[in-house]
Amino acid sequence: MHHMPHDAGFAAPEGVGLDAFGVFMEFKNTMLLQRRFMQKLLADEETHPAQAACLHILAHKDGLSQSELAEKLHVSRPTATTMLQKMEASGVIERRPDQQDQRLIRIYLTQSGKSLVTRLEAVFAQLIRAGVGSMTEKDRTELRRLLDILNQNLTLAIDEA
Fold first, then answer.
1. Using one digit for the tens of pLDDT, what is the confidence trace for 55-67?
2. pTM for this structure?
3. In a domain, 146, yes or no
């Protein structure tokens, strides 16, 4: 078990208890470790996590417009455009004008994009099995319950901000 020492150059911010800060740091560490695991498994692929999300969306709903994709990815349109240009250059997507409205650009997976999606989904399954999949059902249920509370609290805080 690689536990991040809580004194690893991080001090709890003013007004935050050490126990709350410790939980926050463990959760942050989980996110980092999941990303490292994905990066290690995808070392041979030239796919950024945001691109992987984009491919996943297209795999389930091909032919979305650039603005619909930006919305689903929670990124700005310019960010989506830049990412889609890179993905088009690497040959995993193609951009085609809408048949009815030429101003509208629709995004489609290429054959290469479809096979990349298959590989990415296998890696994603491996990540889930290695992490939460290796926990007992009781622990998974408890973790889900706790994360649900955390997400509800954050949602409330966002709405009140």
1. 999 999 999 999 9
2. 0.72
3. no
